[in-house]
Amino acid sequence: MVAARKQVTPPRRRYYEQRHRILIADDNARNLDICTEVLGDDYEILSARNGAEAVDVATKTNPAVILMDLMMPVMDGLQASRKLKQDERTKDIPIIILSAKSMTEDIVEGLDVAEDYIVKPFDFRELVARVRSMVRLKTAQDHIRTLNAQLEELVERRTRQLHDSEKLAIVGQYAAGVVHNLSGALQKVMTSIELARLGGDLHAYLDTAFDGTKEMREIISTILDKGRNEQRLDSTTVNINDVLTTTLRFWEADAAFKHGVEKILDLDPALPAVEAVYAHWSQSFDNLLSNAMAAMADTEVKQLSIRTEFGDQSIRIEIQDTGHGMDEATLERIFDPFFTTRSDGLGTGLGLASVKALLEPYGVAIGVASNPGHGTRFELTLPLVDNTPDAPVSPPQASRRRLRRAGDGAASG
User: Fold this and answer.
1) CATH assignment of 234-413?
2) Following DSSP, what letter does each residue of 340-386 receive, concatenated?
3) Is the pTM of this model over 0.90?
């Protein structure tokens, strides 16, 4: 029961202050009336006659503060407080326990599930001050939570923009190369037709023109296949070798890649099909190739080695370049979002972070071996649930490992 040492008139609420809800849980009608009288001018008062009712009201109304008596029927104050703190909807509502229990162990037990503890009898000024303090706490928490949500949304939006920017940069490379390659094939066709009109070996000219049309068809077919597959976001049967070869054909649109980089391919024909989202693997390979190209931009030897292997109930993909390599400090951060070593302003720092985010749900272990001046090797290991070559595989739980072998591999950045 509440026995006030001194009754005072509580301060009036200022007209510009928000009227917060206060939930008072007490089975004693007199205590409810007294607390309502003291706090009612400044707050909207809600009431509950037992712990179960307090939990129900709090869940439905989200009060700013709860005043909780300990000794109540159906469910006592400690049980109700624990239940409220375990619920995501109510765990952040400050609870002030009102109790005649003044022993240290009782107060400690109460503070284990509440933000404050007031021993009865109490001065109403103390109650008003404690409630006001908790309201400020709840208001600050709500404000911080709102700011965090806005910040997360801003970061997510900016990250999407950077992802789109990076994808557009790669598409820009493709577009320029595609135009160049199509122009070359078209010129071959037009020249052959013009020469045929002037006389000479008609069949030879037509064969050359036909070869030019086949080149154009292959270029267009590659673009359409890649675009169509990457539009699908559902899981389908995917052959990793096919994804790699399609990605490489698409990269052939880039003149620097086509003519300036030696490609060494060793693709295991025994690779089984896997159940996956095509775009996850295609975009990951795009990012790894883009990373390798950036790393080899200023190196004399430009060599890209890609190898796939099936064995030990897993598919292993190795992508190795002869780029400038990375030191230990850089290796520690390469999968951190927004981390980049590029100084040309073109790197977003999201390429390798995207690879990690896209492939880890399939259980892919990502190994990296690199030394400055000796290039980088990425090793992707996809564990299979069923190692039968013809059986599609479902992605298991994620894991990751990193290789550290001196002088073993080549470095991107």
Assistant:
1) 3.30.565.10
2) ---SSS---S-HHHHHHHHHGGGT-EEEEEE-TTS-EEEEEEEE-S-
3) no
